[in-house]
Amino acid sequence: MSVEFDDILLRQDLDADDIKVLLSAKGPRMEALLRRSLDVKLSHLDNYVHLRGLIEFGNDCEKNCLYCGLRSGNAKVRRYCLSDEEVLSCARLAHEFGYGSVALQAGERSDSEFITRIERLVREIKKIDGGSLGVTLSLGEQQEETYRRWFEAGAHRYLLRIESSDEDLYYKIHPHNDRHSFRRRVDCLEILKRIGYQTGTGVMVGLPFQTLDHLAADLLFFKRMDVAMLGLGPYVPHPDTPLYQFKEIIPSPAERMELTLKMIAVARLMMPEINMVAATANQTIDPQGREKAIAAGANVIMPNLTPGEYRESYFIYPDKACVKDEPDQCGRCLDIRLAAIGHKILYNAWGDSLAFLKKS
Ligand code: SAM
Ligand code: SF4
Q1: Does 338 score more than 60 pLDDT?
Q2: CATH of the domain at 75
Q3: How far apart are CA 269 and CA 80, in angstroms?
Q4: Ligand 1: distance of its center to the CA of 160 in Å?
Q5: Which atom of ligand 1 is found nearest the CA of 279?
Q6: Tens digits of residue pLDDT in 139-172
Q7: Which residue range(s) make up the domain with 187?
Q8: Looking at residue 308, what is its pLDDT?
Q9: Residue in 68, 240, 243, 320 to alter for ligand 2 test, most ligand atoms within 8 A of Cβ
Q10: Is 196 a member of any domain?
């Protein structure tokens, strides 16, 4: 191990060159990086993992992102939307299992019926046991007024991945039109922060045309945006999307997994107190993927609470992990899996981002 490499591992303030050295680490160097990021996490956040019961509210989407199975141009997907009662019974399950929080995720819709329903549902979720559930939303780009309405209803965290902080790469993975504006996405992140949400972003790792320079710039973007949360997961090619044609030029699943773990680890070195999600996509390309992400520096898991009959329709990418698991199996399975890597779930707590709490 060179002195220079060891020195980079000890720093929080990294530049693009430092980051690329870390992202290129292999063998013993990669192990040293993952060990260091685990140490950093344990010293700032202890060995707790926070849960968000994931409710995949619906898969109608106005957008046409070139990588995602829910894109409006994909006629093969069976569209669904949960009823209010289905959403609320998922939230009650989350409470019963002691998850402490729910995350409501869906394809992007901006019609007033959708906006009003989400507002009403957030209010109803907040009534469960006197507001004991934290609420994260991941419902895409919206008007400032919409974000405010949902915040006032009780949502306090919002996940909106930038997908790529490089404008050119952004337009290689999205159609180039008003509905998919890179500027608008950055503006939405600024608006969410201004309103007071714990704001999360992130990227997919291993996209076609993505280089280490892009990934280093992404990490610097997250730091500059001073985000409270991050979601980093491998890109998984979906056969019914335009980006699938480039599947031969992307890194292998094992390489995408390694690169994702290194991204998580470097993010943890740079932002020791943020919350970081071990994305389900990790487990999709590696059966141990979620645990590996936790051991690399992530501290949040989102067990799926969506009723079984809809899970296969929320078909973002193929072979999604845990599609067939019953919700009550999930917590127990996670307890065991996490104990095996020296971590434990913090039940019945919101598990807010320490980085955010300290600022506010
Ligand atoms: N519509 C909302 C949005 O785009 O922010 C939330 C739902 S969207 C399905 C959630 C995330 O799924 C996206 O931010 C994207 O990064 C991820 N995703 C979509 N297609 C993917 C793929 N093929 N592989 C890995 N992740 C994917
Ligand atoms: Fe819609 Fe989100 Fe998929 Fe884009 S990533 S097509 S906005 S669900």
Answers
A1: yes
A2: 3.20.20.70
A3: 40
A4: 9
A5: 26
A6: 999 999 999 999 999 999 999 999 999 999 999 9
A7: 18-359
A8: 84
A9: 68
A10: yes
